């Protein structure tokens, strides 16, 4: 049986994919969270549940939250750090990170309503969060294969893959040839046990 936390994790994944698609006009964008991003989602759920029960968090709450956060970036011409421009793709951490959550907690009822009204006026709809995000956890992607090739065989291989990929996947030619299989597998097991299982590693342990 799916736990409330698992359901909320999937809801956040769906929300980020949906808002990103509309915000950047990329209807085919597919959000496949890496282990570090899954950890960020778990931290967000843990932090937000300190002030509101996870049983009270549903599509409408998450929709209002994402409206509030994305509307904030919609109005800015420059970012505070390094003068980054709005054409930089919105990162998950900008939406559910500590600073974003602090803004949410300090918001007024009026600002929440204003953000939702503006985003709905731009075509965003809470009903779209009901659509599941299909993620093939077992497969690999062209993007990840390109990333794995960048530092394959050198001393930066593992560090680069931790930062840019969803880690070891034996369907990847590079992973099957990599000298860091053991270390990468252990990192995946410790940080994302669900993905570890999807890729068949738990079966090999039995």
Instruction: Please report the number of helical segments.
Output: 12
- Structural class call reads mainly alpha
Number of strands: 0
Overall domain count: 2
Main sheet record: none
- List the secondary-structure elements in sequence, H or E: HHHHHHHHHHHH
Question: Uncertain runs with pLDDT below 50, 5 residues or more?
Answer: 77-85
What would you call the shape? elongated
Q: Report strand %.
A: under 5%
Mean pLDDT score: 82
Distance linking N and C termini = 22 Å
Q: What is the radius of gyration computed over CA atoms, rounded to a whole number of angstroms? A: 19 Å
Which percent range fits the helix content?
55-70%
Characterization of the model:
The protein has helices at residues 4-23, 35-48, 59-75, 92-96, 98-105, 109-121, 142-150, 157-164, 173-177, 181-191, 193-198, 201-205. The chain is mainly α and 206 residues long. The chain folds into two domains: 4-130, no CATH class; 142-205, no CATH class. The longest helix is centred in the first third of the chain and has 20 residues, at 4-23. The two termini are 22 Å apart. The relative contact order is 0.13.
């Amino acid at each position: 049986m799916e736990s409330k936390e698992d359901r909320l994790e999937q809801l956040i994944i769906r929300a980020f994919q949906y808002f990103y698609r509309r915000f950047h006009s990329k209807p085919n964008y597919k959000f496949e969270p890496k282990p570090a991003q899954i950890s960020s989602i778990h931290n967000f759920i843990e932090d937000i549940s300190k002030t509101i029960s996870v049983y009270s968090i549903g599509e409408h709450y998450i929709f209002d939250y994402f409206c509030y956060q994305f509307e904030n970036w919609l109005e800015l011409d420059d970012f505070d750090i390094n003068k980054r421009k709005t054409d930089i793709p919105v990162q998950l951490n900008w939406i559910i990170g500590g600073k974003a959550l602090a803004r949410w907690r300090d918001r007024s009822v009026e600002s929440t309503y204003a953000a939702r009204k503006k985003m709905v006026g731009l075509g965003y709809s809470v009903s779209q969060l009901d659509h599941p995000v299909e993620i093939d956890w077992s497969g690999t992607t062209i993007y990840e294969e390109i990333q794995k090739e960048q530092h394959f065989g050198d001393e930066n291989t593992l560090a680069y893959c931790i930062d840019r990929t969803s880690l070891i996947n034996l369907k990847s030619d590079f992973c099957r040839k990599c000298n860091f299989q053991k270390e990468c597998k252990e990192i995946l097991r410790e940080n994302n046990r669900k993905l570890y299982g999807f890729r068949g590693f738990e079966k090999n342990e039995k």
